[in-house]
Amino acid sequence: MSQDASSGLSRRAVLRGAGAVTTAGVVGATGDAHAFSLLQPAEAPRADRVVPSFCELCFWNCGLLASVKGSRILELRGHPDYPNAQGKLCGRGQAGAASIRDEDRLTSPMIRVGPRGEGKFERVGWKTAYRAVAQGFQRTKTQYGAEAIALFYHGKGGPLLRRALVAYGTPNFAAPSYAQCKGARDVAYKLTFGEKLPSPEPLDFDATRCMVLFGSHLGENAHNSQVQEFVRARRRGASLIVLDPRLSTVAAQADVWLPLRPGSDTAVLLAWIHLLLKRGDYSQPFVDTHCTGFDKLAAHVDSCTPDWASALSDVPAVDIVRAYELMRNAKPAVLVHPGRHVSWYGEADIQRGRAQAILTALLGAFWAPGGLFRPSAPNVRDFPGPDFPELPKGVDEASGRFPFAPEATTTGLRDATRTGKPYPIKAWFVHGTNLIQSMPNMEETVQAISNLDLLVVCDVLPTEIVRYADIVLPEDIYLERYDDLQLGAGKKPYIGLRQPVIPSPFDTRPAWRIAKELGEELGVGDFFAFDTFEDYLTARLEGSGVSLDELKAKGIVQLEAKQSPYLGPKEAYAWHTPSGKVELYSAQLASKGFSPLPEYVAQPRPPEGSFRLLYGRSPLHSFARTQNNPILHDIAPSNTLWMHPSVATPLGLKNKDQVMVSNGTGQETGPMELQVTERIASDCVYMVHGFGQRAPGLRRANGKGGSDSEILRNYAVDPIGGTTGMRTEFVRVRKNGV
Amino acid sequence: MRLGMLIELDRCVGCLACVSSCKERWDTGPGAARDWVVTFEHGTRGKDLGLTFYPGLCMQCSDHPCTTECPTGATYRRDDGIVVVDPDVCIGCGNCIPLCPYGARRIDPVKNIVEKCNLCAPYVDRGEAPACVSTCLAECRHFGDLDDPTSKVSQLVRTLDARPLKTAEVDVGPNVFYAGAAHREAIVARGVIQSPRSPELTRLWKGVTRPLARVGVPAFALLTVLGGAMINLRTRGHSQSRAQEKVETLPRHRLGMRVLHWFNALSWLLLLITGTALMATPSFALFGQGFPAAVSRLFHGEGSLLRFHVAWGGLWALVIVPFFLLFKKGGLEAIREIALTRDDLQWLAIKPLVAIGMSKKPLPPQDKYNAGQKAFAASALLGTTVIIGSGVVMTFHLGSAALVATMILVHKLAIALALVGLAVHVTMAALVTEERPALRSMVTGSIDRQHASTHNAKWVEEEESGEKKP
Q1: What would the pLDDT profile of B117-149 be if each residue is shown by its tens digit?
Q2: Assigned fold of A611-735
Q3: B369 within domain boundaries
Q4: How many Å lie between the alpha carbon of B24 and the closest alpha carbon of chain A?
Q5: Chain A closest CA to B271's CA: distance in Å?
Q6: CATH of the domain at B219
Q7: Does B406 touch chain A (CB under 8 A)?
Q8: What's the whole-model pTM score?
Q9: Could you give the ipTM of this predicted complex?
Q10: Searching chain A, which residue's CA lies closest to the CA of residue B120?
Q11: For the packed helices B371-396 and B401-426, what is the interaxial angle rounded to 10 degrees?
Q12: Are residues A558 and A81 in contact, defined by beta-carbon separation less than 8 angstroms?
């Protein structure tokens, strides 16, 4: 990479410079060795201003208050008024300012000079970069049609880039947050209640008396407000049930931990539904008033006894019943967590999600205190512009796949790029997502990229996907830029603002500006009829009762909800399903040939000597985005492979051994450290996702630990919603070097 | 007042927000985080498998053994109970690290000083909470005054039956309390508490070097002074008669040299006083703590005392090192002037005996500087080089902590060596009447010709033949 790596404007670098000058080289040799505070910044400096904004170390979007002195951020704190921050930031958010001084940052637009994938670039100006993108897109559009251009995006900058590309004529845009994350639960809840769940999930921790978590990483996944609310609920005495083959943080605190066989959650759920119906413990008023398909459900679960579920899940029937009793005693204040990263086993994820939704309904816990509340979203208008052009069918729709997917899928776009079917995709614009790690089966991603005529990557760091790029557009860090409004759904709706806290020291630009300037280059400038982003935001805020000045000063404005967060006992409500009811039995699914009632789908056992690969979260890292952050890397530099002692010992493996993990079809990851632990089931291994990156430009993160994505070849595509199950790979483990 | 913390182990979810916020606030270098959360697993799957998080930090112990062997007094316990490291005074020797039973002190490889939790003292002073407390997602950390029974933290200590982490063997009065008995016991059972250990070099200092410095050097100096007094007794009549004669002089020391000499003398005096005063901690104090305390007061605190010592030391080095290197034809000429000849060796063997009247042998002729002066100059040259070198290492924290710690000892040994020479030098010049002309020459620049031809015959011969040549 030809960019100058030494130009990072770190506190330490500045100090180093000062040291070298002041002491005529004596200090220079030692970096920042200090000479009795002559060169040290004062301890505990005071801020000269506090700027509100919101975080992007992950996509929980916590409000923050940045204390700034000059052009240096002293501290990031949680915004007290943000419901998803509640005055605190997680470990990642605290370290946000370190991403500004990450000396590996992308600092100027670049165009590839060597062969694709080699990672050789030359710096160019923005005008040149835009022109190159526009020329490439124009060639693609002329030859294959605008639909041959695909946008992959993740984050707040995405919608404006989507505006530019949709205006240009493509229907093909997708985010891994759907197909590789929470898609299946959104589809399952939509099929059942007619409602997609917003993020953060509308979980009523404040009033809950029992929490049911499925493979949850709470604590390990520091979803800020949810962790705070979870701990408060426990402090208040709410009971806790956790289903997980792994002793997670929450499992260790649970009243009932069900260490079930991977993928058997639905069997346990069906047993609970069976008990609710058999014992008559379900919420009859909710079922009578709002649900349809009760009798069919009753017949369906008739044989799903705790003993039946116990045989399938390997957890004792008494524990299933014990957990059930905790729920029954707490109902309707039972919080059945719908999950977030639920792309585990493909179609089975929809079945599990449906069973969770049905359990919630039968407990009377939907839109009820202590269960899931009814969220309210703010009403803000779109930025005015011309009508979008008539769009051709997206790739999934054109190939007749995934009838219930509410949006295009990343894997669908990748398949079309690889195979040319249903039509070719020849250009990608990738914003803020490292597809090499965020999608299963790296080989297919690389294969798809090799079919491209143009790959444009817009990011902040030289991630793995950047290496394959033809054109690189460096974006401002979230603390340096405006983004589109944050429209928060919750008990109270709110509007939040991301605004520049300090200016970028490099030749980087915000996504909105890239969208606008590239849009103008593509001839769709009419869609971006604003001069400054303040104009854009002001136009959107018109009629909302909130002014941009107020938002800039406060960071967030909470609005009054127009509806109660709970469904009234007598409230008639037309659910947004075809029947207008909560569909315990889904005629929609039946009409497309899918199971209308949740089925338990058994997952195969790993072959002898192999293990099911499970993956999860570190509280200090988001996906593969944060591993190069100087602070986070220092605290959590790598991941380990968890393995049960009963299987490690026969393999001759010891704790802290360096191991390689392979999938039997040629892919291998590591070396990584082995962690021999009772916490994982003996037929599984586990690692934290996001490590093992192969990006030489990320000098801290490169090559540290192992990557589940690198060896995840056999993923399971759900035919209902198109999400990808990724707990489907069997792997072998060997000692490194043997 | 006794500021401390309470951590509810039952509530911790191991999210590490505390560690991250601390790193961001204090900018601690790689591997030098001031706090930690360790995960301990216990039991067996299917039976009693469980997890314990151990969120740890400096326990702000009432006994604070870590502060006892700090060579600069950088670490101490404040009146409010917070144990701090003054980053301006710490030289990063790492002596305190093995003295902490909890491993709460680490070397920052970037700043080259010791990092430890100070409960965010400067922020606490302005009414804020420590970063880890205000950031804790589980709200399991509580901060406050443990001496105040009405404080929230004291009340929680009582209601939650919180206790510090300690063992029967190791109890240094920690002021971080942990609630959750089972988790607390699990943590202690993991052997996280170690007996405080004194570092090797400190033991060496206390066992060998300090007695030497306290007794050896003063004893040698006393002997030298007594020797000087004896010489005066023996030569009393002689010098009185010499005083009557008319004195013919020879130029001996140029003005620059004389100024340098007295600047050097002043520097030694100031650096010795401030340096001795800096050895304030009980383990390092040479002559009790009254002297360091008095000098510290004079300088308005240890920080400015250290800064004065370092600044004057820097000035001293910046003056004498270039002067030495630029002197005549560089340092070589100086070294030639003080190189010992065969005559000098003989002189060294006879002189002490002659001086105190034990021998009447004639002394071999001497150069500009006699063999005694030469030997002293050599020891001063070596000593000064080592003193400046080790001082630079300590000031700029060059190299590893072990090197810095070694340099503390080396600095002192070099001073002791130089002091031995200095004792003779000062005695001869200031006390011995016979050598008065030499002392006077360092003020006026000229020396009594007769004195010189007795004591520096070769030099006088050289000077006079040199005078004739042009």
Answers
A1: 999 999 999 999 999 999 999 999 999 999 999
A2: Barwin-like endoglucanases (2.40.40)
A3: yes
A4: 6
A5: 17
A6: 1.20.950.20
A7: no
A8: 0.89
A9: 0.93
A10: A44
A11: 150
A12: yes
